């Protein structure tokens, strides 16, 4: 349960039970029936810039936004934000980049948005502290629920679960899912 390690034990136990009952995948598919359509780096860049312009217009410009197949999901569950500094013409120039792990090409828009919001917030707040999460929930009022749901999906995949929103599976939505309280602590 490495993706859920920071959640209350009772909630982790509930998730473990859902997995044991084979109900986690259905729950996620029921909650999020379709995947987003942000398939290319260009589309991702446009999506990120729209969000940045809406909420963080004054933050530094982004030099690069891309899906990254080499991003190790275990270490960077959510993506990375970096500032690449290099000397150009005698001046130190820094370039802001946001990279999103390729696994998130195949998730619902709500979950992609959560990752992007997370990385955008890091442009202003480095640590995962109160100010950071305040900025996240400003950009996405459901931020905490989305992050939990994203971690549920990563837990599902980590346990050998199938891809839930692969393009070839579109429309193949499973039946009834149980109601489950996945409230935050
Ligand atoms: Zn972070």
In words, what does this structure look like?
The protein has 185 residues and is of the alpha+beta class. The protein has one domain. It contains six helices and three strands, in the order H-H-H-E-E-E-H-H-H. Strands 1-3-2 form a three-stranded mixed beta sheet. Helix 4 crosses helix 5 and helix 4 crosses helix 6. The C terminus is likely disordered. The site of zinc ion has 4 residues, from loops.
Topology diagram in text:
Blueprint: H1 9-20, H2 24-31, H3 41-55, E1 62-68, E2 80-88, E3 91-101, H4 109-121, H5 130-139, H6 143-158
Parallel strand pairs: 1-3
Antiparallel strand pairs: 2-3
Helix pairs in contact: 4-5, 4-6
The structure holds zinc ion.
Attribute tags:
single chain; 185 residues; alpha+beta; three-stranded mixed beta sheet; 6 helices; 40% helix
Write a brief structural summary.
By secondary structure, this protein is an alpha+beta fold.
Total domains, how many?
1
- SSE order in H/E notation? HHHEEEHHH
Number of separate helices: 6
The overall average pLDDT, rounded, is 83
Strand content: 5-15%
